[in-house]
């Protein structure tokens, strides 16, 4: 039985069967570096997720490092200057490395923005002086039963009709005193 690597498993979770082989064959059929870069760029533009783009880029880099791409000999001889110019001006490995760095930074930026929005939300909640029952439960990780028990124990609570409101400073002070006892 053939052993499947972790990399192959992650690839098959996002790629259709035989898509990897098609992509590999197309890479090998592009002896001109500029054409190869354009092909890979077009391929990743069509992908939606950042992880999927990065996976294709890593795979393309792996294939380029492991496989020699050679042009047809007669074509090479006829256009040797063009091939040499292409090799000097277009380096697909460097291009892939830059793309991977770009997408890694975008992914990091997205995760930082999400964290920043969570922090901003927490600051907004903490800056409010009056909280609802649900906000107190969320903030202090109390169940409804625990909150009602704390109110019965003397936690400051202001009731207006059927709604309960809590002054954040009063509640924080009461909890500090309660912990000290």
TrEMBL record:
InterPro entries: DNA-bd_dom_put_sf, WH-like_DNA-bd_sf. Gene3D superfamilies: Winged helix-like DNA-binding domain superfamily/Winged helix DNA-binding domain (1.10.10.10). SUPFAM superfamilies: Putative DNA-binding domain (SSF46955). This is Helix-turn-helix domain-containing protein. It comes from Pedobacter cryophilus.
């Amino acid at each position: 039985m053939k052993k499947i690597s972790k990399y192959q498993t992650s690839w098959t979770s996002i790629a259709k069967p035989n898509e990897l082989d098609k992509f590999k064959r197309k890479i090998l059929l592009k002896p001109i570096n500029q054409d190869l870069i354009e092909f890979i760029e077009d391929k990743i533009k069509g992908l939606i997720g950042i992880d999927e783009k990065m996976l294709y880029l890593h795979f393309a880099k792996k294939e380029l490092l492991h496989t020699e791409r050679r042009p047809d000999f007669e074509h090479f001889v006829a256009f040797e200057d063009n091939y040499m110019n292409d090799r000097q001006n277009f380096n697909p490995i460097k291009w892939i490395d830059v793309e991977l760095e770009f997408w890694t930074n975008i992914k990091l930026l997205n995760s930082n923005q999400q964290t920043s929005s969570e922090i901003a939300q927490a600051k907004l909640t903490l800056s409010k002086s009056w909280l609802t029952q649900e906000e107190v439960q969320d903030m202090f990780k109390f169940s409804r039963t625990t909150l009602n028990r704390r109110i019965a124990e003397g936690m400051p609570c202001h009731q207006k009709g059927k709604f309960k409101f809590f002054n954040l400073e009063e509640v924080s002070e009461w909890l500090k005193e309660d912990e000290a006892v």
